[in-house]
Input
Amino acid sequence: MALPFDVSTGNRDPRTVGILAKTIYRELRAGGFSERDVMALAGEMLGIVAAEVKQKRTGA
Output
């Protein structure tokens, strides 16, 4: 399945993103962020990525 955005073709270990996500989650929780805060952050990040992909698709 082709993705609608540029993907790095580097030799990245497929586990990298999962490890990064777990690390960020643990750091946020250890820093006092609630589960709700982490969910809100994830939603905001998805919104930013979606807007960027949409902008690239429309050529704006």
User: Anything to note?
Assistant: The chain has two helices and no strands. The chain has a mean pLDDT of 88. The two ends are 25 Å apart (CA to CA). The CA atoms of residues 5 and 53 lie 6 Å apart.
